[in-house]
Amino acid sequence: MKKGKKLFWHRYIGGRHWCYWPAFVSYFRDVVELQLDGDTWERSKAYQDAQSAGYWWPNRDFVMVCDTPAVLHVESATGAHRLHCETGPAVAWSDGWGLHYWHGTRVPADLIETGWDIERIMSERNTEVRRCAIEKMGWDRYVAAAGLKLADEAPDPGNPGQVLRLYDVPRNVLDWPVRVLVAHNATRERDGSRHTFGLTVPTDCRTAIAASAWTFDLTEREYKKLARAT
Asked: Do the beta carbons of residue 9 and residue 54 sit within 8 Å?
């Protein structure tokens, strides 16, 4: 410990996550009936009590204990799990305190709870949070609300009767070069309508058809020959 400073120990104890240790001790105490000094048993009982909590951090002067969450929402992505909930906090505790996440990115509560309008989205300085807000609004709605510049449009070869539209995204919206393709689902909804959605594509997609082809991992020529895109 540095002189004049009190630092947290860089060590946490697993509580219920380290269930092997109480099991090990209870076996020798209750099954084998091994006789050890009383302090060992007392410490084992204290550790068993601590299993009702989550992680806890011992300090020289106190112990910080974290309760287990009452709410936990995760999604599987790229071989791992990340916090995500579209309707409320992704992780919350019994006292009502919680955190909101959108596909693994922590965001303000009102983004999830009420959604942001275009003015609030554009005033957000954090580009990752801004991206999350746009995704929640939907790129198709955002394109219309923000008045993005149309770069190209063309009939969709893989979705007869529908039109593909490609838009430029200004660099003050996202920090990386990207375009947005607005397309329509090939399958109708139950009410007969078609779902409109927006997808980000690389800027080297020069045409709307090339952009749609890229989303299917096809060349523009291959996509033009599709009888139906699903």
From this structure: no
SS (H, E, C) 104-127: CEEECHHHHHCCCCHHHHHHCCCH
| Both tokens assigned to 108 | 């303000």
pTM of the model: 0.68
Residues constituting the chain:
230
| Distance separating alpha carbons of residues 61 and 158, to the nearest angstrom | 67
Paired tokens of 147: 């008045």
Domain residue ranges of the chain, discontinuous segments joined by +? 15-65, 71-134, 138-224
pLDDT tens track for 28-68? 878 988 877 777 777 777 777 777 777 778 777 888 888 88
User: Which residue in this structure is represented by tokens 């922590």?
Assistant: 106
Query: What's the CA dihedral at 173, 175, 177, 182 to 10 degrees?
Result: -40
